[in-house]
Amino acid sequence: STLMPPDDIDWRSIAEAALARVAELEQKLAEQSKLLKELVARLGKDSSNSHKPPSSDRPDQAGKRKEKRKDERKSSGRQAGGQPGHPGTTRELRPVEEADRVVHHRPDHCDHCDASLAGAADAGKPLPRQQFELPPVKLELIHHWLHSLSCPECAGVTTARPGAEHTTGQGPRLTSFIGLLSQRYRLSRSLVVDLLADVFGVRIATGTVQSCVERVGASLEKPQEELEAALREAPSVYLDETGWRQWSEKAWLWVGATLDFTLFTIHPRRGKDVVEDWFPDGYNGYVHSDRWCVYNIFDVKKRQLCWSHLGRDLQAIIDAKGTGAQLAEAIRVGEKTMFRSWHAFKNGELDRAGLKAATDAFRDHLKDYCEGGLAQDSDAETCDHLWRKLGKSLLKLWPAVFNFLDVDGLEPTNNHAERQIRAGVIWRKLTQGTRSDFGSICAARLLSVTTTCRQRGRDALDYLTEALTAHWRGRPPPALVA
Fold it and tell me: Exposure check for the chain: N or C terminus, fewer CB within 10 A?
């Protein structure tokens, strides 16, 4: 009888409290389960299923990506390297008249009987062999005397003033060369100092290197404006942006590229300021870009979304293994089929009408998939949230998804802009960015001009030298894209 509970216990209240506690714990468990899935999905992000750069992949992610690509490839059964019948590539011989030196080699002894071949006659024409050699390099030292003359009329003394290009310790070409080393070849200031000492036997201060870079950057104001004007008139442009550092502040490196030239600028924000500065009166051409909201200021009918980004978003849904994963795999298969048709069109195997006919069904399938994603619950699990997010984004920009299949001159990806901006990314990683507003201006101008020179097959050092000399003499620089 002592083990019996008291009669005054409120069992109903205890049961209700227990049920409320269970419901509370179930809710916490659901929240933690959702958070765990989000963290697992975030941990699984790499350059194949997100917009992260390949350099950010962990070693284990890079290995899995390579294995996946290896599994997708079909083995040809052939060894690596040149195959039988491959024509190969050899360096063409220059005319002997272009040689700076001609050296004759004659054998001393016979390979057959070891007899001396002194005075022996030639047996046919000699065999040619050419070699490039680097001669000793020496900087030209120019010594200037500034003479003072006495006026025969008033006896006043006048001292000669050198031209602007002679007022610094480095001439226009050496100054431009230092700027080229710092930007195009991405050498640090100290490495530029070491290279000049090792190759030319001249040592300068790291501060002098920075001064040379700033002088070159100051001379490129007009070429930068020329590129901005040309960008507004281009029939199509590729736009992209990536992170930058200016001291400890976050900044952004923007690129506007065409197949003929490229424009860079560094801005403290990722908003629409740069796009509005580049296109103050709007833009009538076609824009290649990703789905960053800033680019929504352009007419959606005159845009082409990047399919490389879209493919990575689909891969993220597949890797999340949610409701839409299996359908996303089917979409990726259709994507590959579409690109086979696109390459056949580029190779002349299909005309435009054939390309459209080959891709019409895939367009409908992708739209159905996006509508299915939009129908997902906004509070759904991570994988279905990715599906919903992609569907909402693509349906909003639907005219820009397949423009490349309908309009001549468009490409399905924004890879051209990403290739052009890659040089700036590597420079930022090696130098940690810039340290002042003017340093950012100089960096952007050097990137713009040197990249454009490379695209147009122009000697960057010659152009920088001409632009700097013209700037010092108060003359307009040479045209860059005319």
Answer: N
Provide CB contacts within 8 A for 257, sequence distance 6+.
237, 238, 239, 240, 263, 416, 417, 420
Tell me the average pLDDT across 170-190.
94
Confirm if 65 and 47 have CB atoms less than 8 A apart: yes
Has this prediction a pTM greater than 0.85? no
Token pair, residue 67, equals: 């294995």
Ordered DSSP codes for 372-421? HHHTS-TTS-HHHHHHHHHHHHHHHTGGGTSHHHHSTT--S--HHHHHHH
Structure tokens at 309: 């980004």
pLDDT for 95-112, tens place per residue? Answer: 999 999 999 999 999 999
Is residue 399 within 8 Å of 301, Cβ to Cβ? Answer: yes
User: What's the 3-state SS for 232-243?
Assistant: HHCCEEEEEEEE
Beta bridge partners of 243: 252
Dist CA 197 CA 207 (whole Å): 15
Q: With beta carbons less than 8 A apart as the criterion, state whether 45 and 316 touch.
A: yes
Q: What is the DSSP string of 148-186?
A: EEE-TTT--EEE----GGGSSSS-HHHHHHHHHHHHTT-
What is the rounded distance in angstroms from the CA atom of residue 177 to the CA atom of residue 387? 51
CB neighbours of 252 closer than 8 A, spacing ≥ 6? 241, 242, 243, 244, 266, 267, 268, 269, 270, 274
**CA 440/CA 251 separation, integer angstroms:** 10
Q: What gap in Å lies between CA 103 and CA 83, rounded to an integer?
A: 36
Structure token pair of residue 219: 């001379």
Matching residue, tokens 């000669």: 160
Q: Say how many C-beta atoms besides its own lie within 10 A of residue 264's C-beta.
A: 25
What pLDDT does residue 414 have?
Answer: 96
Provide mean pLDDT across the span 125-143: 91
Distance CA 259, CA 434 (A): 28
Phi and psi at residue 66, to the nearest 5° = -65, -40
C-alpha to C-alpha distance for 278 and 289, rounded to whole angstroms:
15
Q: Which helix (H) or strand (E) holds 288?
A: strand 286-289
Q: What is the pLDDT of residue 320?
A: 83
User: Which DSSP string corresponds to 57-113?
Assistant: --HHHHHHHHHHHHHHSPP-SPPSSPPTT-----PPPPPGGG-S-------SB-TTT
